[in-house]
Amino acid sequence: MYERIRDLREDKDLSQAQVAAYLGCSQRIYSNYERGDVNIPVVILIKLADLHQTSTDYLLNRTNHKAPYPKK
After folding, report:
1. Which domain covers residue 36, as residue numbers?
2. How far apart are CA 26 and CA 5, in angstroms?
3. Could you give the CA distance from residue 72 to residue 4 in angstroms, rounded to a whole number?
4. CA-based end-to-end distance of the chain
């Protein structure tokens, strides 16, 4: 999961600091998320899915289908 989150960030040419600012956390905390040093809170996981226009299932490696689910 953590490698997928890093790869998505790098694909968009975003720095850890930019993603951290979007999430409302420090760069250090975000770096911990990418390394897998701490569990990612559900709220943050949802924000990451929205940022990368994908599903939380994709971020969690539960599917290889990158497209987000339709919103209700």
Report:
1. 2-57
2. 16
3. 26
4. 26
Give the C-alpha separation, 21 to 66, whole Å: 24
- The answer to whether residue 71 sits within a structural domain is no
- The CATH number assigned to the domain holding 46 equals 1.10.260.40
Residue carrying structure tokens 């694909």: 11
Degrees to nearest 5, angle at CA 57 with 27 and 55: 70
- What pLDDT, in 10s, does the model give residues 9-54? 999 999 999 999 999 999 999 999 999 999 999 999 999 999 999 9
**Helical H runs in the chain?**
2-11, 16-23, 27-35, 42-51, 56-59
Closest C-alpha among 46, 57, 48, 37 to residue 7: 48
| pTM over 0.85, yes/no | yes
